[in-house]
Amino acid sequence: MVIRPWTADGRRTIHRDRWVDLSAERVTTATGAVLDPYYTLAYPDWAVAFALTPEGQVVMIRQYRHAAALIDLELPGGCVDPEDATPLLASRRELREETGYDSDEADYLGRFAANPALQTNYVHVTLLRNAVRIGEPAPEAGEEVAVELMSVEAVGRAAVSGAMANAMHIAAVFLVMGRLGKLQF
Question: Which long-range contacts (CB under 8 A, 24 or more apart) does 28-32 make?
């Protein structure tokens, strides 16, 4: 079977603000099925930082996630803002804002789709080595962040045990673990 893209027309905006653009379209699948409305969410791209200290600890955060009503263990990260020249620089900015850590040794590892069935954005992953605390965190309004240093192995266990709930952060951990040679298949 050959998979082909769908066609869309009649796009209408349901709601748009600085964080999200909810739209509805009339979509025709490659087999001729009509889906009306088909909703999509356009978010800014997101960037996450997997930051390793000189001692080999991973800079992690815990914060409350209201939609899921849970306090989650995550990588530092957030939106790629228009003033961020690259997703790598966005991940460094988010790391500084949320934790007070930074590093000049940053490798952009790639991106993956956040939720390609409904969302238009990507998650960008950066590995930072020799991250050091350069100042106090400066979280944005609505961010209450607790910083934790964890071993790479403990982060891997958290990703597979359910201690981390955010699928995008779990995927980022696996991407980094693969780059670090910590995965065996």
Answer: 30/3, 30/4, 30/5, 30/6
Q: Are 54 and 120 in the same domain?
A: yes
Q: Are residues 52 and 103 part of one domain?
A: yes
- Nearest Cα to 125, choosing from 159, 169, 155? 169
Task: Give the pair of three-digit tokens for residue 143.
Answer: 């961010």
Q: For residues 121 and 127, is the Cβ–Cβ distance under 8 A?
A: no
Q: Could you give the CA distance from residue 76 to residue 93 in angstroms, rounded to a whole number?
A: 10
Q: Distance of CA 98 to CAs 30, 62, 153, 181, Å? A: 44, 10, 22, 27
Per-residue pLDDT tens digits for 57-97? 999 999 999 999 999 999 999 999 999 999 999 999 999 99
The closest of 37, 35, 34 to 23, measured between CA atoms, is: 37
Tell me: the pLDDT tens digits for 114-161?
999 999 999 999 999 999 999 999 988 888 999 999 999 999 999 999
CA distance 90 to 83: 9
Q: Work out whether strand 46-51 and strand 34-42 pair parallel, antiparallel, or are unpaired.
A: unpaired
Tell me whether residue 95 is in a domain: yes
Domain range for residue 80? 46-179
